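Aggregate trends can hide what the representation actually does to any particular protein. This step matters because it turns folding into a mapping between discrete strings. For completeness, the protein is quoted in full, as a sequence line and a line of structure tokens:
=====
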Amino acid sequence: MPGIRYYNCPGLTRILLRIAGSIGVKGVDEGNLRGVVSRGSRSTAYARIWALPRPFIVAFGWRPSYVVEVIYERWGRLSCEEKLAVLVHELLHVPRRPGGGLRRHGEWSRWGRLLEAARPLASLCGELEEAVASCIGGKG
């Protein structure tokens, strides 16, 4: 049985960078933020964010880096507004002063607040759908 497969998704990365700029996430740019789509996960999450562990940052002299993973099996169940809110949620885990690691959930992560932050991003809906589908070769 094959495990989780990951697909690099440059289109998703571009959208994540636009969302990060729109919601004021500091410390992320095209050099340290990537988007991937996964298939084969049993997770109940729609997406998740991964941070390069602090020991790697220190040992190799790398800068803090982040990957947002969209979990394809669950992603399609969401409306576009909900997808954007999920991406906002994942990006808000990036700490205000990126030094590695992620922010914990707090008042910022309440669903109503995330939906409110996602509303002005609605123009990204078509591009987001196309980007995710293209990363897995349009396979559904």
User: Anything to note?
Assistant: The radius of gyration is 15 Å. The chain has one domain: 5-135. Residues 5-135 form a domain with the Zincin-like fold (CATH 3.30.2010). Residues 10-23 form the longest helix (14 residues).
